[in-house]
Amino acid sequence: MIAIREELKRGGRRKYLRTRQITTLLEDKVGAIGARFEYKPIEVGMIGCGGMMGPYHTEDLQHGRISVVTSLYDLEKTARDIAARFAVPNAFFLKEIKGNEGPTALKEIEDYNRISLDACLDNHRLSVLSGPNNLHVEQAKYILGREDAGERFLYIEKPPSNSLEGAMELAELERQHPGQIGIVSQNRLWDMVLEARYLISQGAIGDIQDFRIEYQQDWMNEGTPAVWRTMKGIGGEKGSDDDGNIGKLMDIAYHATDTIQFVTGMDISHVLRSHIKNVIRERDPDPGSTFGAKSESKNKKVSVGGETEYHGDDVMETQLELEGGATGSMKVAQTNAGNGNMLKFQIYGSKGRIEFTTDDPEHLQIYDFSGNCTTRTRDPNQLEYRKATLPRWLRDGMNMDSPPFQYHTPPMHGTGWRDVHRKQAQAWALYSQLVSQGVIGKEERDNLYIVPTAAEALKVMQSLKAIYEAHKAQKDYRLSVKDMGR
Fold first, then answer.
1. How far is it, in rounded angstroms, from Cα 114 to Cα 193?
2. What's the CA gap between 47 and 281, in Å, rounded?
3. In this predicted structure, what is the pLDDT of residue 483?
4. Which of 37-46, 187-196, 408-417 is the most confident on average?
5. Which terminus of the chain, N or C, has less C-beta within 10 A?
6. How far apart are CA 404 and CA 217, in angstroms?
7. Are 161 and 134 in contact (CB under 8 A)?
8. Of the candidates 77, 81, 105, which has an alpha carbon nearest to the alpha carbon of residue 93?
9. Element spanning 444, H or E
10. For residue 131, which of 186, 50, 51 has the smallest C-alpha distance?
């Protein structure tokens, strides 16, 4: 691979035909990998297994040919359970800091955790950070601060941090270690989302004028306790909900924001209006499960929202402007019944409209001004984006249509969610594997657009911060309809 690149470099003044022959040889080397390349699976470690995402990532990456999960790092009970369930050979334990330890005991716990983490890192090259949001940045800095940092790759759960400041630190870390950080944002991997992105880039609906995007769930209803996602400083920023601090809705508002920027190819430039509503004012104490049922605890309920220790943002409605001047709206909610996990967008252009929903992930609707509707079906042989935009090493190196694994889908997440989650994780593992083995270089990171960079994640976090700040500025604005005309 290196020899081929050097030949290309030296041959810069040679005839075009010779350069083209070498380029073809390079494509044959990187492409058709399944037939030409002997895979050595990259070793993966789970840094924080979590109650929800850890098992999915572990199963997704226990692939065999592309990757194999060799180690876990978490609290002992969690690590042992996940290791036994997915045949992971090494489990390393984290001791919990409860906050009432004296200086000596605290140092002993911190030393133990550092030694345990280093032992885990020695057993793998690709680290998946899937613990609480507030831990990601410090873990990433520690891992890429090791002597072997140049050999390491990180796959970080979204949101990449619980704060804008953390996202800025992570983007700076990526600048120092280019090509080594990938951020989870699996909604990019719906085939019809990728097809919509490609068609829009080719002018299928003309210039974008307007859009609507919504992401709605109902799991954070009044029967759900105050889980870690609601805790200030963990699931979101510290401070009052009324002071422009990012809250728990960041969990799915992140997805909606990334999706609209990804599909349109335009960043959000301005927040025009924002309203965030606290629907549920009290919750049961956390029984220890992210998707836990209503707690049987007889303890007093905890207050959420405002100045309390828990975020209360349940419904978000905001009006946004994209770089090109198009304006549109975004609605995000986790308390609206009948929406298990529904992402939907409508994008309006000068020639027509394109529409997608995860409630019907097999189809993409395209409308024109004559009232005609063309329905694209998820036929692998007709998906234009694959040949047009995916790098050959990715097309040849993994099966984009293999059936989802058997581990259960999260409650109410619907058909296809596990598949897109798996495809993104395996795409990042394949890239990390091929770079590690010298088959491709880190410059190929630019072509792996289906996995967000830390720089892209920062743009999302900047947009979310602006949405929350706009709510702070506008929260007291009320215009009485009855007073009109008086």
1. 41
2. 33
3. 84
4. 187-196
5. C
6. 22
7. yes
8. 77
9. none
10. 50
Token pair for residue 363? 């189809």
Q: Which amino acid, 478?
A: R
Residues forming beta bridges with residue 315, ordered by sequence position: 277, 333
CA-based torsion, 109, 159, 41, 440: positive or negative: negative
Query: Angle at which helices 454-474 and 250-264 pack, to 10 degrees?
Result: 120
Please confirm whether the linkage preceding 159 is cis (ω < 30° from 0): yes
Interacting residues of 47 by C-beta distance below 8 A, sequence separation 6+: 73, 117, 120, 127, 128, 129, 130, 131, 139, 143
Do 126 and 107 meet the contact criterion of CB atoms below 8 Å apart? no
Beta bridge partners of 210: 327, 348
Map tokens 């759900």 to a residue.
224
Q: How far apart are CA 330 and CA 259, in angstroms?
A: 11
- Rounded to 5 degrees, what are φ and ψ at 23? -60, -40
CA dihedral 48, 50, 52, 55 (to 10 degrees): 50
Please identify which residue in the block is written with the tokens 């037939």. Answer: 35
Query: What CA–CA distance (Å, rounded) separates 59 from 62?
Result: 5
Residue ranges of domains in the chain, CATH in brackets? 2-30 (no CATH), 34-185+402-453 (3.40.50.720), 189-384+464-471 (3.30.360.10)
In the block, tokens 């997805």 appear at 255
Reduce the DSSP state of residue 422 to 3 states and report it.
helix
The DSSP string of 71-100 is EEEE-HHHHHHHHHHHT-SEEEE-----S-
Tokens of 139: 């873990």
pLDDT of residue 438: 94
d(CA 376, CA 187): 18
Task: Name which of 310, 293, 288, 295 is nearest 51 in CA terms.
Answer: 288
* Predicted pLDDT of residue 32: 46
**pTM, entire model:** 0.88
What pLDDT is attached to residue 462? 96
Task: Please provide the distance, in angstroms rounded to a whole number, between the alpha carbons at the two ends of the chain.
Answer: 78
